[in-house]
Specification:
Helix content of chain B: under 10%
Number of helices of chain B: 2
CATH topology of chain A: Protocatechuate 3,4-Dioxygenase, subunit A
CATH superfamily of chain B: Aromatic compound dioxygenase
Order of helices and strands of chain A: HEEEEEEHEEEE
Structural class of chain B: mainly beta
Number of strands of chain B: 14
Shape of chain B: globular
Radius of gyration of chain A: 17 Å
CATH class of chain B: Mainly Beta
Radius of gyration of chain B: 19 Å
Strand content of chain B: 25-35%
Number of strands of chain A: 10
Largest sheet of chain A: 5 strands, mixed
Helix content of chain A: under 10%
Oligomer: heterodimer
CATH architecture of chain B: Sandwich
Number of helices of chain A: 2
Number of domains of chain B: 1
CATH superfamily of chain A: Aromatic compound dioxygenase
Chain lengths: 190, 236
């Protein structure tokens, strides 16, 4: 039996009251294990204008590198205070912010360890289907051998790595999402 | 450790391209580079979608026809169907988020400036969770058509927005359901962004007298099909 897939359509401009609640931008409680990180960024269009009607979703492993999902059968601890899903809408200046932890490494293709990363979905008016990208972490030795990062042209790879915002703001990482044009973020075919 | 099988890829000509010239909002938002295809790993095979991940909208989630102490205006309808994968397997206990305009074609949203009345008794927000058979059912009001500024005299056909997770990051889907017999579909750039004619047809619900509630509400059927598992497990 083979049924045909249901097509994607845009999220449109009017999703916020239905889909986005205050608090979903925090993936953590005070009890969650792991190194705290705040991820801030903007969504910009091909004119570098802010996209004020985007929705960003995160999905990530816990501090030990295990996903809270039945298909992850690794012998690593689950964290009852960390489930790994976050959602936020951009504001009038295209800004978003998440409070989370740096995930541990999870195995990838060929059982090679992947560099720590967060899986990202982007929805917006004008996007007829979601965009998918990943947030990697700066100063992470595993980035050099990560299969996904190495599948990306070297000159575009840095669009997938969050930046340290400033020395005065420890724990704050910057990750801008450029939909189109110069420094366009790398999107993944999943 | 063996990683479970990945998921099948997006079917060709079923999903819209990012760049669809007749839909003006794509012009500055469609990426210019093709996506970088990656193998499915635990990151894509796992995913959110449990009820705890998404907020309850409050009130009676599967009956959108009552809000704020009163009854919504408009034509009451039942929408029901199943969430399946490409192999016809039910996707149970999965969240579906729902939003739509009211009977007059206006969203309860600050940025909807259409000069049509708001309905104090219709929020246009719902949420259902599929049962053991992947089935869902809710009652709402048939949404009105509304103008948008995409081109001269542009009107969106009647539609309801749906957000589904399915079992993995790979199966996430946001889409819109349309109604049979709506003359605006042929003119709508968003509906027509789906390249394949039969795939477009699958976005249109089926009117079904069996689903109606006599003296109360008309009935429509709409099934969702999310990506299924790839045939060969990835052994690692």
């Amino acid at each position: 039996m083979s049924l045909p897939q249901t097509p994607s359509q845009t999220i449109g401009p009017f999703f916020k009251p239905a889909l986005v609640r205050s608090g979903q931008e925090s993936l953590i409680t005070s009890e969650s294990r792991g190194e705290r990180v705040t991820i801030e960024g903007r969504v910009l269009d091909g004119d570098a204008a802010p996209v004020s009607d985007a929705m960003i979703e995160l999905w990530q492993a816990n501090a030990d590198g295990r996903y809270d999902h039945p298909d992850d059968s690794q012998e690593k601890l689950l964290d009852p205070d960390f489930h790994g899903f976050g959602r936020a809408a951009t504001d009038e200046r295209g800004r978003f912010r998440f409070y989370t932890i740096k995930p541990g490494s999870v195995p990838g293709a060929g059982n090679i360890l992947q560099a720590p990363h967060i899986n990202v979905s982007i929805f917006a008016r004008g996007l007829l289907k979601r965009l998918i990208t990943r947030i990697y972490f700066p100063d992470e030795p595993l980035n050099a051998v990560d299969v996904v990062l190495n599948a990306v042209a070297p000159e575009r790879r840095s669009t997938l790595v969050a930046r340290i915002e400033s020395a005065e703001r420890p724990g704050v990482l910057r990750f801008d999402i450029i939909l189109q044009g110069e420094n366009e973020t790398v999107y993944l075919g999943v | 450790m063996s990683t479970p099988a990945g998921y099948r890829r997006e079917a060709a000509r079923v999903h819209p391209p990012h760049d669809h010239p007749s839909y003006a909002s794509t012009h500055k938002r469609a990426p210019r580079y093709a996506p970088v295809a990656i193998e499915h790993t635990l990151s894509e095979i796992t995913g959110p979608g449990l009820a705890r991940e998404t907020p309850a909208p409050g009130g009676n989630e599967n009956d959108m026809t009552h809000f704020n102490g009163g009854e919504a205006l408009g034509e009451r309808i039942i929408v029901t169907g199943r969430v399946l994968d490409e192999d016809g397997r039910a996707i149970p206990h999965s969240v579906i988020e729902i939003w739509q305009a009211n009977a007059a074609g206006r969203y309860a949203h600050a940025e909807d400036q259409h000069q049509a009345p708001l309905d104090p008794h219709f929020a246009g927000i719902g949420r259902v969770i599929t049962d053991d058979r992947g089935a869902y059912r809710f009652m709402t009001i048939k949404p009105g058509a509304y103008p948008w500024r995409n081109h001269h005299n542009a009107w969106r056909p009647n539609h309801i927005h749906f957000s589904l997770f399915g079992p993995s990051f790979a199966t996430r889907l946001i889409t819109q359901m349309y109604f049979p017999g709506d003359p605006l579909q042929a003119l709508d750039p968003i509906f027509n962004s789906v390249p394949d004619n039969s795939a477009r047809g699958r976005l249109i619900a089926t009117f079904d007298m069996e689903v109606t509630i006599p003296e109360h509400a008309l009935g429509y059927r709409f099934d969702f099909v999310l990506r299924g598992r790839a045939a060969t497990p990835t052994l690692s």
